[in-house]
Known about the structure:
The chain is of the alpha/beta class and about 260 residues long.
Amino acid sequence: MRTSIASRxxxxxxxxxxxxxxxxxxxxxxxxxDTWWDxxxxxxxxxxxxxxxxxxxxxxxSDKPHDPAVYEPRLIVSDIVAVLDAERVDSALVWGFSMGAxxxxxxxxxxxxxxxxxxxxxxxxxPSPAGRREQVLSAxxxxxxxxxMEAASxxxxxxxxxxxxxLAHNDPAALSASMAGxxxxxxxxxxxxxxxxxxxxxxxxxxxPDDLQLADRLGVETHLIPGASHHGxxxxxDDALTIVRPFLEQHRPSAAAR
Length: 258
C-alpha cells in the first residue's frame, strides 16, 4: 500500500506491505520504494516481514526540493523517524542500499534505539577516500540536467528502459541537490551500535584491507556477490537475499520482545 506523511513540511511517500517484524528498506540514489519490488525483493520479504520501503526526499513520489541544505543526512534521518512514528514502529530491522545504506547507517548512529539490526548493501560506513567532497560536488553538478542524468544512468549500467523510468520518476535538479547535501557528513561504523552486515558486488569498489579489518574488529559480517557491479548487485536479488535473510532472521526480535 502506498501512503505518505508530512515531515519538515515535505511530503514523504512510502510503501508498506506484509505483517510481522518491521523491516525498513531504503533505496539507492535515483531509485524509489517500488524498485525493491521490481528487482524481486518486496513480495518475498513481505511474506516474512512488515516491509516499509521509503522514497527518500527528492526521490520517487516524495517532494523534490532543489535546496541541498534540506538533504543534510540528519534531516533525512528525521524523515525516516517520522515514517516510523506514523507506522507506530519503535524499532526495526533496517536494510539500505548505496545512498540508502548511508541513510541506514546514519539512522543507526543518530537514533540507535530505532534500529535492531543494520544491513548496508553497495556501501558501508567506512572512511571516505581523499577528494570525496570534490568528487561528489562534481557529480552533483553533472547530473543536474536531464542530459547529465541520462548519461550518469547509462554509465551506471541501467538499461534503456530503466533510464526512461528513472527520468520519469525523478527531477534531475532535486537528485543533484540530494547528492550535494551529503558532502559534509558521513556515518562512521564505530558509532553504530546495532549488529551489522555489509555486502558489495565483487566488481564494485571493494572494501579496503583497512575497511575489512575495521569490520572484523567491530564484529560486522561482510560478504561479496561474485561478478556483480554496483547496480548489478542490487538487481541480483537471489544472491543478496541468500546473504541477508539469515542475518535478518538471526536478529529478528523474539515474540516476547515485540
